Amino acid sequence: RLTTSQPLHAKQQIILLGGSTIFNAQVPNEKTIASLLQKKINESNHDATVYNFGKSGATTSDRLNVVFDKFLLRPNDMVINYFGVNDACINKLDFTPKTNSFDLSVVMINGALMTLAKNLVVFNKLKPISKPGSNKAVLNYVSKVTIPVISEFNSICEIRKIKFLAVLQPSAYCINTVEKKTRLYLKGFSNSPEVPIRIANKLIFFSLREKKYFVDARQIFNENSETNYTDWVHTTESGNRRICSFLFQQISQRHWLA
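-> structure tokens emitted (258 positions)
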């Protein structure tokens, strides 16, 4: 997508990677996370151009491979990988309907559970059931693909003197207090990805928490009453502004801006 207010000839490039949550189809170009970050950088008199490399459904492996294949990176450039959800949902074993009777039965049961939770307070804490092997599939993918590719990418960045930040993204399942609109949406979400996301987030956090290039952004919407989500993960203009401020703070305190 077009990042607005880009300078013509900047000393530094900032590549913002992610899935649909970076592509930001829910808002116009000037309200994406990338454009809001560009505006904040311009206002702070730093000389950098932000590029939006978000792609719907893209995993960490896909985006990190693309950025080296398609983009000429220079020393002092910056790569920010906003990730987590698509890596957890790549297999979609928990919530994608299949044609066999067992998988369809799981989907139907989950639909019934969510209907009960939506209409009767006593069932509010019901959670969707998981298909056998789905949790293991998430663990295998994150441990054997996502985490290794992030580590390898960081090693390459260190050699090339490129700055790299891996940001574990938030979702509605990470918030302590969910505002009303999002809460009602979650109650009616029969094919919820909550289980794989929680599994993936836990593994990612405990694997990368001591790495200097990693930061956990899952709690940035806590204690915030604004409507930050359009669903369970895609963000509104308000949510994008909060994410933008978080990213700007992270790169500023590391003194990464030209």
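Residues 93-98 have pLDDT under 50 and may be disordered.
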